[in-house]
Specification:
With 414 residues, the protein is an alpha/beta fold. It has 14 helices and 13 strands. Helix 1 packs across helix 8 and helix 3 crosses helix 4. It is globular and about 60 Å long. It starts with 5 loop residues before the first helix and ends with a helix.
Length: 414
């Protein structure tokens, strides 16, 4: 089975996809056509913000957001090391410096307490308070925080935004995996100064290629992002008022997202049901059930989009044994982000010095299961074809073979 069964979903909406794409072919506005504007309006309303700006990818969304905030050389941008490289890559592309902050061990998102320490350390130039980037001869200015809603769960934006207000920092929400999630009644992409999502096919709401979008309540920031998206365009395409990029969303991709969005609210509800079923089936193997696995934690007031269903094994040996056991049952798994960003070669000596104990432990034990839908015959009450997060055959996952794989005597690890 596949991690995500896009073909099965496509069968449900193929007539609508065909109709949408034929409409684009008929009017011929392949760049920033009416479907792009329609999508921006619909998703802005869904997220609960005033403005949405489509773009070429989730990476471009982050880059454009930073550019709109005026981030550049000498600026420090705080973020998590437990994420895909795009989150920090865009910081370095603009000549700014990422300052990596350790994660909350329960949510895997940036730890607000450690974030406070990191900001204080930079302001006081005191690395004893928190590890700071090495080999920076010029003092850095704290300017921005990029949160990451990892695996679909929103970060603690209430705490992060309060800290940002205290220090005069921008907050950018990396919501590539969390469109449709909620935090205290507000939807993902509305939780910071600018929210950024991705329409990569594997994301909760995806297209059939690359695409992304920025969200904001600020008319000023939206206007700058729209300009940056088209080479810093001013009043017309040959009036360039700032340095920008070619970051436009293709109209055909917008048409696909519009079609897939018709299923999206229902899919989010089904993801909740599937995740609840996994939690119930895996409870005997969970830490609270005195088993070895740590199941996903969703704090009160939050709702995950369940981009992935993540399990934390006690060590790498039992993680590997569990993967092999699941593989025998035809269930694919994947270890996400095995090397944290502050240890990646790409960031070299400029990366935050020191070790992050929580991320180090996670890289030894973290895995994620398949995102394929549970076959309808095995998931009563769920509509055929809607994707659900991970561990598709939950009846097998808590079976004898899996229990045997997690036994420390079997793996030779206590």
């Amino acid at each position: 089975m596949q991690f995500i069964d896009l073909a099965h979903q496509q069968k449900i909406i193929k007539p609508l996809i065909d109709e949408r794409m034929q409409a684009v072919l008929a009017h011929g506005q392949y760049i920033n056509g009416p479907e792009v504007r329609e999508l921006e309006e619909k998703l802005a309303q869904y997220a609960g913000v005033s403005h949405a700006v489509g773009c070429a990818s989730g990476t471009d969304a982050l880059l454009m957001a930073l550019m709109a905030c005026g981030i550049g050389p000498g600026d420090a941008v705080f973020t998590t090391p437990f994420t895909f490289i795009a989150t920090a890559e865009v910081i370095s592309l603009l000549g700014a410096t990422p300052v990596f902050v350790d994660i909350d061990p329960d949510t895997f998102n940036i730890d607000p307490g450690r974030l406070e320490s990191a900001v204080s350390a930079l302001v006081e130039r005191n690395p004893s308070v928190h590890p700071l980037p090495a080999n920076n001869s010029v003092p850095l200015r704290p300017r921005c925080i990029i949160t990451v809603n990892l695996f679909g769960l929103p970060a603690d934006h209430a705490a992060v935004n309060a800290l940002a207000k205290k220090h005069g920092l921008f907050v950018i929400e990396d919501a590539a995996q969390s469109f449709g999630a909620e935090s205290n009644g507000s939807r993902s992409c509305s939780l910071a100064d600018i929210g950024c999502t991705s329409f990569f096919p594997a994301k909760p709401l995806g297209c059939y290629g690359d695409g992304g979008m920025c969200f904001t309540d600020s008319g000023e920031l939206a206007e700058i992002i729209q300009s940056v998206r088209v080479h810093g365009k001013g009043t017309h395409k040959y009036d360039n008022v700032r340095i920008g990029i070619n970051g436009r969303l293709d109209t055909l991709q917008a048409a696909v997202v519009l079609a897939r969005f018709t299923l999206f609210p229902r899919e989010i509800e089904l993801r909740q049901a599937v995740a609840a079923r996994y939690a119930k089936s895996l409870a005997p193997l969970s830490v609270n059930g005195q088993g070895p696995l740590k199941l996903p934690s969703v704090p009160g007031g939050m709702r995950s989009a369940w981009a992935q269903y993540s399990l934390l094994a006690p060590d790498s040996a039992r993680r590997s044994a569990l993967q092999q056991a699941l593989k025998k049952d035809g269930i694919p798994t994947q270890v996400y982000y095995p090397t944290p960003l502050h240890l990646q070669t790409a960031f070299g000596p400029s990366a935050t010095a020191g070790r992050f104990s929580r991320k180090r432990r996670l890289r030894l034990a973290h895995l994620q299961s398949s995102h394929a839908p549970v076959p309808a015959a095995r998931r009563p009450g769920l509509h055929r074809g809607f994707p659900g997060p991970g561990l598709p055959f939950v009846g097998r996952v808590d079976g004898p073979q899996t229990r045997h794989a997690l036994d420390p005597q079997t793996t030779g690890r206590a």
